[in-house]
Amino acid sequence: QDGAWGVTASVRQQGGGVAGRSPIVWTAVGNPFLLDMPLLVSVRISTMTPPSELERIVAKVVARAERGAVIVSPWISPGEKAAREAVIAAGGRFVQLLPEGMGRYYKPGGRDFDLCAEGRLLQLSPFAPKQAGEGRDSYGKPRFEWLNLAAREMSDLAIGISRAELGKKGI
């Protein structure tokens, strides 16, 4: 379905899906051509990341975005959200993996709507939308971990640091 602000469509992930499972059907809103760009970079930043390390990671993400890379992340942690804001400020393009499904009449709100209209944002979700009467979801860590894995699997390069990597560094 084409609209003035983007496209709502289903996108089938190629290459066996995440971790060799069967292909995943993603619901998409925004600019699907972002997935065809030469470099997709995933971002994952632990909530435990020290401020100095966070600044270094965000600078790397912005540098990639300024050189034309499309940044991919669920944008969950405060550090990831800071990176998202920096990418937007730098005029970058990005893909957001949503933890909830998109209903038939879903459209991004506010600034995300404008970013889709500019062709700078694609929102993706592999989840079914909630049905009427269902309560608010509390997604939890397994869903967020899966989204981070999905972002990494669809990207050519990964930037960031996980909690496990922080522990290995002694941070």
Largest sheet: 8 strands, mixed
Mean pLDDT: 83
**Radius of gyration (Å):** 16 Å
Return residue spans where pLDDT drops below 50 for at least 5 consecutive residues.
1-17
Number of strands: 8
Strand content of the residues, in percent?
Answer: 15-25%
Bulk shape:
globular
Q: Helical element count? A: 5
Q: Can you list the strand order of the major beta sheet?
A: 1-2-3-7-6-5-4-8
* C-alpha termini separation: 48 Å
**What is the ordering of alpha helices and beta strands?**
EEEEHEHEHEHEH
The share of residues in helices is 25-40%
Structural class of the secondary structure composition? alpha/beta
Task: Kindly describe this structure.
- This protein has 171 residues and is α/β, with parallel strands linked by helices.
- The protein has helices at 51-66, 78-89, 110-117, 140-153, 163-169; strands spanning 2-3, 6-12, 25-30, 40-45, 70-73, 93-97, 121-125, 157-161.
- An 8-stranded mixed sheet has the order 1-2-3-7-6-5-4-8, with helices on both faces.
- Strand 5 (70-73), helix 2 and strand 6 (93-97) form a beta-alpha-beta unit.
- Helix 1 (51-66) packs parallel to helix 2 (78-89).
- The radius of gyration is 16 Å and the shape is globular.
- The relative contact order is 0.22.
